[in-house]
Fold these 2 entries.
Entry 1:
Amino acid sequence: MHSAQELVANVVTLASLPTVYLHIRDELDAPTGSATSVAHAISADPAISSSLLRLANSAFYGYGGRIDTITRAVTILGIQQVHDLVLAISASDAFSLFAPQHLDMPRFWRGSVMRGLAAREIGRNQGMIGVERLFVIGLLSDIGHLVMYQTIPELTHEARTVATANREPLHEVERRIAGCDHAEVGAALMAQWRLPTTFVDIIGAQGNPRLAGDYVYEAAMVHVAARIAEADQENESSTAAAERIAPVIWSLLDMEPASLRRIRESAELDLSAYTALFFPNLGNARA
């Protein structure tokens, strides 16, 4: 049996965040941190700078090519949103060379984008402020599976096979077979990367949102977003997907199960374009 910390320790040297992200995080934490210093840190990495400008000028952010420098990007988007976008870019790059057994990477990242879009749409539906952070948290919420498929591929594959065959919750089967589940592993990686507590607590409690403390509401959103992404990949109906979500989750969010269909449809509208935007080398592959 394995622990989440053990699995993360085995990949952290292979999947580390770049120096530019660490500098941005330090600037955010520092009392003297400024937009100018954040822009300077990003500009030191041409690849991340290019990706950030491509995202900032995409149709989804609505600036129509008017953001031509990193300084302007930081000024218009704000330090926090730039932090989250650079984190998304950095995390995907950190795992870009991974080719785990039993895991189709284009399918995995497409599902991750769907999680992010669905989480953001739920946040919008609830009238939340700062829903772009929900997109990034949703995008990273299944990253524990990347670690598990890289380190214990046979056990992880077995757990998914058993869960599917017996229609059991995947996280429960993973704990029984592997000793830990993908949410625990994801949270351990977020903690190892020293990401904000928001990421650690929400991702760690996505299977049981009531364990998320101050972030129970957001964890419930990610929980629903994960079910939507699974339904998309398994061609499951929205009605069936909604039925697999416990009533306590709907009550916690003050949402009706019937709303899942509209949220899913809205997320699906942007799925291909967002996948191409964040992962241009993947194409539109779908397993």
Entry 2:
Amino acid sequence: MSLTLTDVTLTYADGDARLTALDQVTLDVPRGSLTAVVGPSGSGKSSLLAVAATLITPDAGTVTVDGTTTTGMTRGDLTDLRRRKIGIVFQHPNLLPALSACEQLQVMAQIDGRSPARARTRALELLDAVGLAPQAERRPHQLSGGQRQRVNIARALMNDPTVLLVDEPTSALDHERGAAVVDLLTRLTHQQATATVLVTHDRAHLIGVDQIAEVHDGRLRPGPRPEQALRQACR
């Protein structure tokens, strides 16, 4: 398994009490597979993603990324782990306005110490993989919303992560573009052999995912099969 959460509990202060965001959550995501995590707003989806990304330390339980258990790691070690092992696709691309699509990716590799030539080669490979090779030199204002999200995905893959965490990538897209983004994530997951977690409220695009998990009140349970989720979403 490339990503494993075991009996993870996370609470937040709520006045004099504690609010439970995650309640003994266990999740295994193998390399080369995509797990969709669904649930209503406030159910714990975002908290689960933040814990998996090592951005928040849980109260109890363990997070294991590509064989490394994160318990007890320093902030510096966690930062290094994220840079080497975890790609994060945020809900909004937040691309730098002055940089081309290719340069958005090159910056990530240069932060990791790669040479500019190697960084550009890898960036062009990934832009080709997401269908944006002809747009490599375009800036964000010259791209559609779906294209900007594809750049966002390619950027998260720039440092060859083993774990890919994706937060609501279709929320600002129409149905057709949203479906295309999920199809792209499914294909790249298999091609790049990442352990991918897709957090979403939209069940209509999940026909191609490998498994679905549902979050309710901080508890995680197996969800319906992808084809069942599609039928439910279409009712």
